[in-house]
Amino acid sequence: MTIKRRCNNCHELYEGRHCPVCSKKFAAKSDKRRLEKDEQRRIYKSRLWEKCRKNVRLRYSDYDIWLLAVGIKRVCAKPYIHHIIPRDEDPDLTFNLDNLITVSKESHEQIHQWYKTDRAAAMARINKGIKEYREYGGN
């Protein structure tokens, strides 16, 4: 007589070490996550991205565009390159210089919080920051 166990997730009885139903389900999720990370790694380690990143940093002189919109002029030591329209929504704009800005880590997190609550206001603030940079003496 074999010993059966009850799965904590699906509550089905099974023999062996792992529930076969849940193992397949979790393996599929894990594969999807791994493929997404591989795609990100492939993009952000590419030579095209390195050139694009360099051009964006030169274009905005490493200023934090998000803070510039509210009148704070700060140069980022290690700027993040932010996609105004996220890669998930429009992959064609991944390397488009008009879709990229430089921001600090804190600003980048704040932008994504705003995207969740009031995306239109976040976009307006980004556009205001770009306009302020150009008036300030940028490209």
Structure description:
The structure is a single chain. The protein contains five helices and four strands. The protein has 139 residues and is mainly alpha-helical. The strands form two sheets. Strands 1-2 form a two-stranded antiparallel sheet. The protein has a two-stranded antiparallel ribbon with strand order 3-4. α4 packs across α5 (119-136). The radius of gyration is 22 Å and the shape is elongated. The protein starts with a strand and ends with a helix.
In short:
The protein is mainly alpha-helical. It has helices spanning 20-44, 47-60, 65-68, 105-117, 119-136; strands at residues 5-6, 13-14, 80-83, 100-103.
> Biggest sheet, strands in spatial order?
1-2
Distance between the termini: 78 Å
The profile of the biggest β sheet is: 2 strands, antiparallel
For the CA atoms, what is the radius of gyration? 22 Å
User: What's the tally of helices?
Assistant: 5
User: How many β strands by DSSP?
Assistant: 4
Give the overall pLDDT as a whole number.
89
Give the helices and strands as they follow along the chain: EEHHHEEHH
Low-confidence stretches: none
Overall shape = elongated
The share of residues in helices is: 40-55%
Structural class computed from helices and strand pairing: mainly alpha
Q: Classify the beta-strand content into a percent band.
A: 5-15%
From the structure above, extract its key features.
139 residues, mainly alpha, two-stranded antiparallel sheet, 5 helices, 9% strand
Write the layout of secondary structure elements.
Layout lengths: L4 E2 L6 E2 L5 H25 L2 H14 L4 H4 L11 E4 L16 E4 L1 H13 L1 H18 L3
Antiparallel strand pairs: 1-2, 3-4
